[in-house]
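Hey, I was hoping to borrow your eyes for a little while. No rush at all, and the record is pasted right below:
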Amino acid sequence: MSFPRSIPTTSSTPESSSLDSFRYHSNTVVMTPKPQRFKRVAKPPTTPPRKTRRSILPNPSSSSEPHISFENTKPLPREFFQIDALDLAPRLLGKFLRRDDVVLQITEVEAYRSNDSASHGRFGITPRTAPVFGPGGHAYVYLCYGLHTMLNVVADKEGVGAGVLIRSCAPICGLDVIQQRRGQKTDKPILLTGPGKVGQALGLSTEWSNHPLYTPGGVELLDGPEPENILVGPRVGIQFALPEHVDALWRFAIADSAWISAPRNTLRPPL
């Protein structure tokens, strides 16, 4: 298994401290009030605006945040995907998924290889699994429990039957559309930490299965920054598989990202 390089006033009221002074005229005491002198009260200092916690990721709709443009960014080439799923998985971290105005950054993935007892490829070629046996760089989209749309990136050469599940992403552009599709008005990690949430945020259905991710239009996979550090761990929800596959460290995530699904405590830096 190979990995890439080791992969934010007090204002007081004026005091009436002036006392009446007395002036004596023969035997008569005349009270002559001394003119009161009021101190000039300085305006209370302007309280600096309260610092609010900055969002984990820039909100492109906010004018105070830098605008990220992907207009001239081309999808990754077909050859990028046609390698072993275990090599492709960590290389997908930091890359961008784009569909129209929605852009997500991949933060967590899982690799599924050929002859893997946890992979859909174990069933052989069926109408459902046929796309995962296609050439690397295509999408394999399926329904989990008939509810959750799961996006996989097909890996390796045609006929191998391997892929990488996109487990979690971070929102980069199109937050309003993402929130609408997800039915959640939040910018917290709960919005996109889970494979079904990613598929929903992109508005995917099984009709997107077999779609080439390296061609402009539709759903595209764009190049992005390589993470400085990554975490590895066993995959999630595959207790039915053989022990060696259940324990295999084929789950990868960006180390300093909050956009990682549960459980996090099974992830650790690679040896």
User: Anything to note?
Assistant: Residues 78-254 form a domain with the 3-methyladenine DNA Glycosylase; Chain A fold (CATH 3.10.300.10). Strands lie at 21-25, 28-32, 96-99, 102-112, 139-144, 148-155, 162-173, 219-222, 230-233, 251-254. The radius of gyration is 31 Å.
